[in-house]
TrEMBL record, chain B:
EC class name: oxidoreductase
Organism taxonomic ancestry: Bacteria, Pseudomonadati, Bacteroidota, Sphingobacteriia, Sphingobacteriales
EC number: 1.7.1.4
Annotated GO biological process: nitrate assimilation
This protein's name: Nitrite reductase [NAD(P)H] small subunit
Amino acid sequence: MLLNTEIIYYKSHIYILFDLNALKTENMTTTKPAVVIIGNGMVSYKFCEKLIAKSSNFEIIVFGEESRPAYDRVHLSEYFNGKSAEDLSMSPLTWYADNGIHLHLNDPVQEINREEKTVHTLKGINQHYDYLILATGSSAFVPDIPGVEKQGVFVYRTIEDLDLILAYAANAKEAAVIGGGLLGLEAAKALIDLGIKEPHVIEFAPRLMPRQIDQAGSKMLQMKLNELGLRIHLNKSTSRIGGEDKIDALHFADDTQIHVDMLIISAGIRPRDELAQLSGLKTGTRGGVVVNDYMQTSDESIFAIGECALHEGMIYGLVAPGYEMADVAVNTLCDSEKSFSGYDMSTKLKLIGIDVASFGDPFIAEPDCRSIVMDDSHKGVYKRINISNDGKHLLGGILVGDATSYNMLLQTVKNNIILPPNPEDLILGSRGESANDGSGAMSLPDDALICSCESVSKGAILHAVKEDHITTLDGIKKCTKAGTCCGGCVPMVKDLIAGSLKESGIYVKNVICEHFNYSRQELLDVIKINNVKIYDEALDHFGKGDGCETCKPVVASILSSLWNDVIVKQAPTQDSNDRYLANIQKGGTYSVVPRIPGGEITPDKLIILGQIAKKYALYTKITGGQRIDMFGAHVNDLPDIWEELIDAGFESGHAYGKALRTVKSCVGSTWCRFGLHDSVSFAIEIEERYRGIRAPHKIKGGVSGCVRECAEAQSKDFGIIATEKGWNLYICGNGGSKPQHAQLLASDIDKETCIKYIDRFLMFYIKTADPLTRTATWLNKMEGGLTYLKNVILNDSIEICGQLETEMQGLVDSFHCEWKEVVTNPELRKRFVHFVNAPEKKDPTVEFDTFRTQIKAKDWL
Amino acid sequence: MIINTDIELQAEASIEWFLACNEEDVPENGGACIDYKGEQIAIFNFTRRKEWYATQNLCPHKQQMALSRGMIGSAGESCEPKVACPFHKKTFSLLSGECASGEDYTIKTYPVKLSAGQVFIGIQ
């Protein structure tokens, strides 16, 4: 057996390398050699995928102990917010069958007979193997705390665990997680999702995520997690789990205790090496099957990959190195030369919505390096980079709260890129006038690893774009698999696609959809120049096919922005909300929002809103934009409701449209003892100026009467804040899923100048933004950024301001209340029915529940 | 082919035509909803293609009576006519009823007949 071996010396270890060719000829019979895989997790799946891609000369047999085929354990916690077991599945059962893989589920292997080369399973199968792959993964490490056997104590590892947790959490009020690492914090998030208020997290170490981040990073993370309602206890050692049969308390070594009726233990993983031990394979003293650089165990026909494998004293608890091991094992089986030489443990993850990343050597400290640290507890961002003492190279770092620069930093470490003279720019951003031109990814060397999960290099992506002419993200995903695992590299992949197209001289634009090969800005221009007034005309001249739900609302919005016609006249090209001039809600009823400019309303009008809501049995709520929303209106009732509202002096609030929503205000100098100017009057003036104007997305404004900023104007698309000398104007702020503060456009300006600038700003946005792009994203993508925009608006650098002002004035002058048009037009009113053959009949499937003395929509079925 | 036609004819014979509404009751290039003995049917006036379609009004995704309020259009080189539910933009072929957004839903489709400005829906 050992005839064809060679001995190599590598990293001061001695390895004996077996010639597998020799092994194969020895075992080769007329049938294909059998590769048996024990375990059906992500790494096992990846092994199968890679093996069938590389060779069809093997018979593949997989034994899994769970009832489901391999699923995505990395995103396990998404099971609690709606993803089903099927969503998490790596591939359906048919995939195995289609590829000739024999998959045995629910059938764990119980014994390996190395002499006869067979495995024996629980269900009694005796399976011969030529090569055996151990992909048994790991189990949750449960520390030896008295009471762990009590009811209500769980681990967090499999979908079955999650189902048990789900069932038990329904009756639990207080819960805790032992373990402040990645999985522990995910488990705590899951508890919040399950309705547990303020779960406890108990960590033995003095900091959270001790493997990834340092003390200061942990402090920042802890602050952010506290805000989200987690109660973190560090330096805590649990001595006992209290309770009769069920857990009712956790007792700690420092004689304190907390009351809990549920506990999830997530204190780490333990490699599953029982089978290997039983069969006499070499295992580590602290667990794990010892493997060489080719993933072979001490028995050369048995391999171990993933979390059960112990390579040079390391267990790799991440999926990316597991995939790499699978690749090495496949290559070894197929006689290609590939070895495993450790794996970079850099990670970036989103933990409960908080970015956490560490890369390179995060913990290296002075005097071996110099560290630059940014610790901003105001924004909740902590960044640390470690640079070499000569200032030339990046060695590693930690990011908490904002990891947008992770990919670039990681590439800088991996490719040993020489640092710029001011390396602090890497974490602080460029602070001079020149903005980042986004060419970052293109400046990397070709062998830079972009997708580390699937080992896809920059060169491979560029090749796919340039040689195979694949220009979409989905195409690249299919062709190279980049971005298909954790998705962290997707922004870089996008940049590379755009960058390499640009390099090839191909003009990159975001076309609207398959029917219009134009960007929104181009389409707006051609529609304007050609005086197009209706959707079908635009489609006939500039598009193809019959349109769709993407281009119809875009064109409808462009037509409105250009001509400001009554939108209901072209109702079927409008999105449902614009078609019925109301917001469709769960259950198919609509909500009604009259305009309340600046949030100022008289008692009489308040009473009328109350009376109308009562009359039509509507649910009422104050909105975030300081107005009153009335929910649960049948489509048939909308015109009558609006008739009454209009009679009382209300008008449409355009809450249904991609249009100006509200201009929020604080009470200002008329009442407030701090107020500098009358913010309410200014807010009303501005809201009435821009009401009804259609834009690529909704627009919100705010006016604050002093620097205390009670109107939260800096979170709006345009925000105005009173100063001693006038007003400061901020633009491109955004709440929503990716909040962004508005940036200062001009300071201490008077009202007229302020309005002039907003006119120019909004009109420029309306004319140039992509569909459904808020002003913040529009600015982020703009070449030249704020500096450019300032030049356009303040200095008229592209000589467009006069035109923008005229066009805006045109829209302001042509304002009309859309609901008034409907209410006074019997033909338009007729459209507001549920059944055209029974106009009086309301939708009988609409049902409400009673909730806090009001109605609420029935839950989704 | 001949056999197919026979089957179609047989099928035709067993269809009961229900008078749904007048042509002008359904907006051009849009939809409307019909009450047929307690069943809700969405009917689409695809003026641009000079075609009419009818489907169930219920979107199977979240069980909402909404397809008649969706936008219609076409997909792909073959210009497959489709409707998008206003709730979450799941799209369905108006020909086969199959969901084009990748899910395993199918909606019921009905034949439509026009006669003297009146719209009939075929019920089998």
